[in-house]
Amino acid sequence: MKKLIIIKYGELTTKHDNINFFIKTLKNNIEASLSSINHTITYDVGRMFIETDDFDEVINKLTNIFGIHEINTGYELETDDFESFSNELLNLVKEKEFTTFKVQTKRSNKKYPLNSMEISRKLGAILLRNIPNIKVDVNNPELLINVEIRLNKVYFYFDKIKGIGGYPLGVAGKGMLMLSGGIDSPVAGYLAMKRGVRLECVYFDSPPHTSENAKNKVLDLATVLANYSSYIKIHVIRFTDIQEAIYKNCPKEYMITIMRRMMYRIAENLAHKNNCKIIINGESIGQVASQTLTSMAVINETIKMPVIRPVACFDKLEIIELAKKIGTYDISIRPYEDCCTIFVPEHPVINPVAKLAKEYEESFDYETLINEAIKEHTIIKVPVINKEFSDIL
Fold first, then answer.
1. CA pair distance 236, 379, nearest whole angstrom
2. Residue 260 to residue 247: CA distance in whole angstroms
3. Residue with the larger pLDDT of the pair 388 and 64
4. Closest CA to 112 of 146, 81, 86, 75
5. pLDDT digits (tens, 9 = 90+) for 176-192
6. Distance, CA of 22 to CA of 41 (rounded, Å)
7. At what angle do helices 316-326 and 184-194 cross, to 10 degrees?
């Protein structure tokens, strides 16, 4: 009998013609995460199996990999002879402490002479005869015994760990995340990654108006997100000249609108150059003046690339709750302002007029400033660090 880790795919099983692409991508992502650990992986369209000597470390890494629905430590027997595997199961169960149990059987080998219900009943009867003071509870058992009958093989597993689900990272291509130091954008990045989007990030730095601490906060946020990827690349844009030009030449109430229009133009340019298919940000409808529907429409008109807003319909408390779960909240609330919070007017326009926004921004040579900012921008690659996250979606 062989001990191994059994991975269930979950949502991936809804795919049909391209399911092999999703599963192979998941396997590649797991291989990359386990590169420093001795292991072997086999898989088919139903399950993935990992053999290793370091179960705890492997499971710890698997809990941060998108595309995994469930992780089980189980046992493989290379026989489907009922008497043989029932004896092995009895020996395993005798080592456990419980008073109530349930046997749950899945029979992928439909040619097997017993059906799933018959296997469960026969195994349950054997356990009841051989282990004292136990009984069956089909609704809330202390011990759930999972049995899978496959071609010439049987698998047992008892305990399960919930994976973070979603699609394997990379199956949907790349997106450019507009990453600030706030609460919302890291959560948006996490949710995009959960749908298979690999991230690059753009951060708008505005020294001396923003501090080095503000930039370090963003790097720390990216480091948390990088725990779900091999690395994350951050494009750091020096936004000072553009921001000061807006402050000097545009009406105060339109400053945020025009600033966001400039950011979108830069993000789209970087996205095209780095093979990103979409722009991602943390905008939530109505949360601030630049996130009313009118504001978003006026800001969005400057570019043609699709903009994905994963938290658009979340309220602030929902976003905060998720930020705490993924480990970004405590970093986001560090008291260092980013360029989105400096120069904020007392009464920003909530229903900007596109014609006026265009007129105001044409009062200075923004195209030259944007080109210079892109030309001079720096790139920081954030590596993975070992952090422990629990209770993640």
1. 6
2. 13
3. 64
4. 81
5. 999 998 999 999 999 99
6. 15
7. 70
Of 142, 162, 182, the position where a domain reaches its end is 162
- Decide: 232 and 105 in contact? Cβ < 8 Å: no
pLDDT 10s digits, 91-113:
999 999 999 999 999 998 888 99
Global pTM? 0.89
128 and 219 inside one domain? no
Indicate the SS3 state at residue 392.
Answer: coil
CATH of the domain at 126: 3.30.2130.30
Q: Are residues 68 and 151 in the same domain?
A: yes
Whole-angstrom CA distances from 219 to 125, 134, 158 are: 58, 54, 40
Residues 224 and 369 in one domain: yes
For residue 170 the two structure tokens come to 């990379």
Q: Give DSSP secondary structure letters for 30-64.
A: HHHHTTTS-EEEEE-SSEEEEEES-HHHHHHHHTT
Q: What is the pLDDT of residue 128?
A: 97
Give the position of tokens 């590596």. 383
Nearest to 279 by CA among 301, 304, 297: 304
**Model confidence at 386: pLDDT above 50:** no
- Those residues whose C-beta lies under 8 Å from the C-beta of residue 157, and which sit 6 or more positions away, are 6, 72, 73, 74, 75, 146
Residue pLDDT, tens place only, 13-27: 888 888 999 999 999
> Is residue 274 within 8 Å of 200, Cβ to Cβ?
yes
Q: What CATH number is attached to the domain comprising 241?
A: 3.40.50.620
Which residues span the domain enclosing 29? Answer: 2-162
Residue 338: closest CA among 218, 223, 201, 232: 218
Count: domains in the chain: 2
Q: Can you tell me whether residue 297 is helix, strand or coil?
A: helix
Assess whether 30 and 88 both reside in one domain: yes
**Shared domain check, 236 and 132:** no
